[in-house]
Design brief:
55 residues, mainly alpha, 2 helices, elongated
Length: 55
């Protein structure tokens, strides 16, 4: 179950990061695009923290 959640989180991070870049380039909404990119990076950081082995 954990693998499924981490996979969904990675896909959501990719979608947010890609959507943020699209928003910044095409729609010229810099603030909203940066917030989306930041949210995507937070998701990637959460996955990285969850994957680090305890030891």
């Amino acid at each position: 179950m954990t693998g499924t959640i981490l996979s969904i989180l990675m896909l959501a991070g990719l979608a947010l990061t890609g959507g943020g870049i699209f928003t910044m380039v095409r729609r010229r909404e810099r603030k909203r695009g940066m917030l989306m990119i930041a949210a995507g990076l937070v998701m990637f950081a959460n996955v990285a923290i969850a994957v680090i082995p305890y030891g």
